Amino acid sequence: MKKLLTILLLFAYIQSQAQTNQLKKIENSIRDNGIGNKFEKQIIDLNNDQVDDYIYLYQCGEPKCIKVYLNIKGILTEQISEQCWSYELSSVNNKKKLTLTLGHCCGESPYVSIRSFEFSNSQAVIKDNYVLTNIEYTGSSMLSPDFYNSQSETAVINTSDYNLRFSPSTDLLQGEEKETFTYGTSEGTNIIAQIKMGSIINILSQLIQKDKTWLFIEVDSASLIGKNHPVDFNFKDQKLRGWVSSKYVTRK
User: Fold this and answer.
1) Hey, what's the signal peptide range on this chain (predicted)?
2) Phi/psi class of residue 48: alpha, beta or left (left: φ > 0; alpha: ψ in -120 to 50)?
């Protein structure tokens, strides 16, 4: 029994030393590749397996870079390595959720990329991957709903060149909003893209006004007309979110 305990303690010590050495190697690499030879580190159990995982945020250019490592059987395994402006950790149904926000470039951007991840015992699992209009360019407009449907609903666009807007309104932009948001498909409007006829969309929420029902949707970039649209972050399978009128939408 004493011999077994000694072996177990020795194994734990060797494993601990190996992880310490791996941490040093990871952090030296981040210092070498970052700006200013420094980083922010958060130690947290991301997947509820009672061992520490690691999040590193460091300056690597105009945006920052983030790296996330899961501790899998004593070995730190890189799960996420990409650029972001910032990250946020939340808890949903006792599961940690990591949300990354990234603008197009140069510290300012009319659109932002939102990517969120949850974590299993062995990997990061992407949950959200979409583009949204940046609120700094749109004043007090309602860019996303206050409440979401419990499940998304599939629907089809049944007219051509259907307008996707950053807010649930057909009014022309006014005042400061008109001056700051100059990136729509039509000058002075909140139209950010147009959707092809026959496209499949996902309805995430709806807003009923006096004379109109607005749908907050998510749509594939392949369903958007032309190449001049907001989805250009080069993340695989990224979608665009915004508002459409329900008038020419067939709900399944």
Assistant:
1) 1-18
2) left
Q: Which two tokens stand for residue 104?
A: 């197009």
- Those residues with Cβ within 8 angstroms of residue 80's Cβ, 6 or more apart along the chain or in another chain: 66, 67, 68, 98, 100, 117, 124
Residue-wise pLDDT for 163-202, tens only, equals 999 999 999 998 888 888 888 888 899 999 999 999 999 9
Tokens of 40: 């922010």
* Among the four given CATH numbers 2.30.30, 2.170.150, 3.30.479, 3.40.50, the one describing domain 141-251: 2.30.30
**SS3 label, residue 245:** strand
pLDDT in tens, 209-238: 888 999 999 999 999 998 777 888 789 999
Which residues, in sequence order, are CB contacts of 12 under 8 Å at separation 6+?
none
